[in-house]
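My current task is to audit a protein record that another person submitted. What it holds is a sequence and that sequence's fold in token form. Thanks in advance; the entry in question is below.
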Amino acid sequence: MPIRVATDPDDDRVLVITIDRPEARNALDPAHQQDLGAAVADFEADDARLVAVLTGAGDTTFSAGADLKTLIPAYREAVRAGEDPPWNFGGFTATTRHKPLIAAVNGHALAGGLEMALACDIRLCSPNATFGLAETKWAIIPGAGGTVRLPRAVPLGLAMEMILSGEPIDAAEAYRSGLVNRVVDLAELVPAACALARSIAAKGPLAVRAARERVLDGLGLDHATAMAREHEAFLAVMRTDDAVEGPAAFAEKRPPRYRGA
């Protein structure tokens, strides 16, 4: 399989999805694009899987994005023929997800690779990671969320510099600017991402989903509307069985048994 999917051995609620094409810098050709989309869709549809980690095979590259020899030419010719095909990576950079996805950036995250990392909820990286949107070097622009998500993740001036110049930043700058949550030694990167995923998976799944949705939706709302939507979600979660179980487990000093209902 072009995309490897494995269950975390310490918690089967966590999946690790690996883009396995290191010989091509984990760039997505049509087969990898299709399989990555299927892997993410399967994760979203599986009620037993609560959090996923996305990474790349090898120790140099998370992903270089679209394969310039196959995926880009086919798309370009369709556009020049007057068509308007969708453009996204792995089916998740342009669609709504409901579960947390953590990027374990194990090297270069370039062009569509950075757009995939930006579409994840949390990003960890190794010290050798770099982050760049190089599309202007090829006389195109980012088209899978790069111009939308990067200015929301880092200061506007830095986003403009990265997008307009096409030049990458290193792991230290990515951490300073808030693009990544932390920098972790390469050998510990996926284990650290899985540990974070397990921590999230242990929380009330309905609460995690509702909180995630409120954060993302609230970014595009005025303050009063965002507060009102948060209150609606707060009430909805308070009515669930899980909201009874959580405090009861705390009071009884036992692990909670969440039903997701």
Observations:
- The CA atoms of residues 205 and 260 lie 6 Å apart.
- The longest strand covers residues 14-19.
